[in-house]
Amino acid sequence: MRRVTILGATGSIGQSTLDLIARAPDEFQVVALTGGRNIVQLAKDARRFGAEMAVTACADLLDELRSALAGSGIAAGAGAGALIEAAQRPADWIMSAIVGVAGLTPGLAALEQGTTLALANKESLVAAGPLLLATAARHGARILPVDSEHSAIFQALTGEDRAAVERVIITASGGAFRDRPLGDLAHVGVGEASTHPNWDMGQRITIDSASMFNKALEVIEAKEFFDLDPSQIEVLVHPQSSVHALVGFRDGGLMAHVGPPDMRHAIGYALNWPHRRDLPVARLDLAAIGRLDFTAPDPARYPALKLAWQVMEAGGHAGAIFNAAKERALDHFIAGRIGFLQMSALVARALDHGLVDAPGGEMTLETVRRCDHVTRQQLDRLIVS
Ligand code: NAD
Ligand code: MG
Q: Which residue has the higher pLDDT, 360 or 153?
């Protein structure tokens, strides 16, 4: 039996992970599940999977969680400290699927127990890549990619000589507004930005896909995961979302990973690694798909994308600044305070500001937190001014 914990169990990735675990009940023992405000779902899953512990990130919901778990013998916890406790419970495999930089501290706590961390939470790698990787190395922990593009790269690299890699191509669906006239983009609303043409995901990453902030995060994530030079990373718009990524080698060969747009493939790959097991995903019918299209992303449509290269060239805490500005701008867009195009404009300005006095020394959780905090305040000031 492998002991598994899911941080962010009530979300889109968390639920897909539980779906796979439910199909192999004899192989997995669920240790801890964490969630946010959806106590009904959290308690239901904790009972169903016989978890040892269930934790809500919301300190004010402890009583509600306790009563939902009454009589089950499952320990209930709430708030930041309890999230860390959940991540510290001995487990063989921990899914990091909290959304946003909020996943960083629990992710670090998981790595400190020397476990395998399946990383869906790209924001923690963008904001604090060097810290996350150093923590993993220090404790003998392993990080496996869950983002579909990064799982694809990881799979394409299996058995290959890393020194022979020339470039990596990440694909992007183009998001909700791929075919919208450019002139409309200033006025698109939260509802339509929250609908993805191919993937069924949480609201925040879906809007980030429409703006391409998600792809900007993924470019930085790829640099950190695979130790690439920024010049080695390319992005192509690929509307069919069948090819998730390609790795180009020095002999001119390209290895493409092709699969259905179903996160259970990448999650299942990380769950079963280093083996491949049956997964309940659709088998691609390439004849039915008929064609695979690739185009270069239009910088006028996706101004957020180029910021990734600015962040990578700046290095240090630039990722923490970028991620915090992006998260805050997204909060404001979702709340209806700013328009869709204002997100990239504001993040670009907050990044320029933040880089001026970014901390230069060693990266610690404290320096990342501070950058995150200061940047959010800066972004709020930019909106008022
Ligand atoms: P989601 O919004 O569906 O779920 C997020 C989870 O995090 C929920 O369990 C929620 O309760 C919890 N959470 C939210 N705020 C929290 C906080 N402040 N503290 C602790 N927990 C909190 O998100 P998702 O779509 O499942 O995405 C999760 C992560 O996986 C993100 O980093 C996302 O970028 C990444 N990812 C998602 C997909 C996808 O298909 N959904 C694909 C690739 C990568
Ligand atoms: Mg992705």
A: 153
